[in-house]
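=== RUN LOG ===
request id: a7f3
mode: sequence -> structure
chains: 1
length: 581
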Amino acid sequence: MHYRPRPEDQRFILDAVLDAPARLRALAPFADVDAALQVQVLEEAARFVGEVIAPPNRDGDEIGCRFADGEVRTPPGFRAAYQAFVDGGWPALSAAPEDGGQGLPTVLEAILYEWMSAANHGLTMAPGLLHGAYACLKHHGSEALKQRYLPKLASGEWLATMCLTEAHAGSDVGQVRTRAVPQADSSLRVAGGKIFISGGEHDLTPNIVHLVLCRLPDAPAGPKGLSLALVPKQLPDGTRNAVHCERIEEKMGLHGSPTCVMRFDEATGWLVGEAGRGLAAMFVMMNAARLHVALQGIGLLDAAWQKAGAYALERRQMRAPGATPASRGSEAADLIAEHPAVRRILDTQRAWIEGARAVAYRSALMLDVAAHDADPRARERAQRWCALVTPVLKAACTQQAFHGASECLQVFGGHGYVREWGIEQIVRDARVTMIYEGTNEIQAIDLLVRKVLPDGGAAMSALLVELRDTLDASRDADADVQRRLAQLRYLGTTIAMAAQADPKLPYEVADDYLRLVMLALLAWAWARIDAAKASDAGRTERTGPAAAFRRWVLPEFEMRHGIVKRACEGLALSHAAGPRP
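=== RESULT ===
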C-alpha cells in the first residue's frame, strides 16, 4: 500500500480555486509557465514519487539508519532513491537558473515535497532543508561562499543541515554556547556541540553543509549576540573538517532519518551574513522550513487517509446502519466505508486536507509574489500573508496530521495497531512535526504576541479584509465566512486591550487564537472550493468532505472564540471587582 499522489487534486486547487496559472504568468520570471507546463511537471513528479520515493519507506522504518565509528548508513534503497532524485533535477526545481536551477514557481516545489513526505517522510528529511539553506546563502552569503556552495545545494549534490539546538538551549536559542573565533584568513574556528541535527551525518552525499548558530568572541549575551557560520563536512581542498557525529538518537519514529549529536572540534567555517546577525540570516531558512513542515503535515494526513480509505473499501463487517432495503442484500452494504462513524472520520480528514492545501498553496504563491511582483504594494501584502500565515500552517497542519492520522488508525481497529498495514508508522512519524522547527506553542506565541499584538492587530485585520473581499456576500456560505472573519478581527482588539491589564493573557490564549485563525482560513478555502465546483470534475467526491467541514470541523470556531472571549471578559471582571479581601 505505497502512497500514490493524485495530481488531479492539486490541479483543481491550483486552477479552479487559486487561479494560479494566471497569477504566476503575471510575474516576470514565470511568464512562460503556463497551465500545460504545470500539468507536465506535476504528472512527472507524481510518477517519480510513487515509483521511486515510496517503495523504500517500509525498510526506512523497520531497518532504519545504522551508526558505527562516527559514520551513518541510511536504510536499503535510500541512496539509490536519493540519487534518482538528484539525477532527475528535482532539488533544483525552484532554484535560480544562474545557480543551475530550473527557476520554476515555489508552489510546484511545495507540492513535490508534500507528496514526498507522504510517500517517505524519513527520506524526504534529507533534502528537506535544501531550499532553506539555499535561500539563506543566496540572501546572506558572501560571493565566495555563493560561488562555491550554491550550485551544489541547488542541484542536491550536497545536502545541508541547520544546527541550532544545544543540550541546554532548545527554544531559548539565546543560550547557545558554541563559539567561533575569527582567523587571519577570514575563516572561523568553530567549537561546540549540537543535538537533534537531522541529517548531521549520512552516506547520501559526499559533503554536508552545516549552518551553525554560534557566538563570536566578546559577543553580548542573548540572541542578539549570535552569528551564523557555514561549516562543511569536507573542506574545499578535499580534506575532512573537524566535524564529528557522536551518535544518532533512538526515536519514536522517523527511523529513516538520522537525528545526530554533533561535535565541532575547532572546525573550519566561514561567517554567513553580518556578525551578531545570525538569527536574521537563519530565519530565512527557518521560515522556509516551517512551510515545508506544514506541507509534511498535509502529506502525512493524506497518506493516512489513503490507507484508511482503501481499507474501509475492503473490510466487511455488519450491515451499515441506515442501509436502504434495496441495498441490504448488496455487497457494499457491509463495507465499513458505509458506516457513519467511519464515514465521518474519512470525510473530516479529507476536509482538512483539501482546505489546508488551498491555504498552503496560496502561501507558496505569495512567496513568489513577494519576491517578483512589480507592484510594491502587492509585494507588501504577500509578505504580510507569509509572516502571519506561516506559523498558523505549521502548527495547525502538524497537529491535525498527528491527531487525524490517529483517527485514521481507528478505522483499522486492532489491525491498525500492528505493523502490517503501515498506518501506525504514520502516527509515529507525524508526532515530531509538532515539535521541530519551533514547537507549536512557540508558533502560537510568535503569531499572537510578536506579530498580531504589536500593531494592535492592524496587519491581521488587513489580511482578513483582503480575504473578505475575495468572497461573494450574496452567497449564504460566503456571508457566513465573512461574519467569522469579522469576529476574528474584533477579537484581536479585545485581546490587545485585555493584555494591557494582564501581560500573561496572550500567552495563555495563543494556542486557541492560532486555531481560530486556521479555522477561519479553512472556512475561506472551503467557500472558494464550493464556488469552484462547477469546474470540478471530482465534485461528487468532495461532497462528503464539504458537508463534514461544515458539520464537524467549523463548529470548533465558536468553541475557541468563546474560550478566548471569556478569558478576556473574565479578566476585565476580576479587575473591575478589585483585589480580594
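=== NOTES ===
The chain has 20 helices and nine strands.
The longest strand covers residues 259-272.
=== END ===
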